[in-house]
Amino acid sequence: MNKIHLIFMFQVFYISGVISSCENPEIKSTSYTTQDATILTHIAYISEFTVKCGSGSLANLYSLLGDTIQPVGMTGPNKYQISWTEEVKNARTGDITIKLFDDDGYALLRKAQRAGDDLNSVPQFGMITINHSGTYKGPWISCECLAVAFSLIVCYYAIHFRSKLLA
Q: What is the pLDDT of residue 57?
């Protein structure tokens, strides 16, 4: 039984040495947000980014947006994506900062959340920014209203000139 414990301990130390955390990460991101909200009810925010580690490897990433923690999707080797939607009337504009956490940071983040501590005090893995300039919600006056107003003006002039011709 003693040999089993030694083998188990060796495997644990070997795996923990092989799976080391990402050191000196370099994050490059691109983002997309919905620009036209004339017929939509929600605005989509999407950020795709790559993480290049100076040394070590990266298993999972988690994001913190406001007070919401959510996992980041992996789309390929070292490629990640985060996305969410908001109602048009509640949609944020300008720069939106998303904090990223690795597995260790996520554990600290959950611990701070359970304790009721400030989530901004937890050290983050990295940060990405999405810029949303706002959405086009359509013209101030709809085409239907302009057509009705134009029709009423044409009818008024037609009736007015008809009454002058008959008088």
A: 83
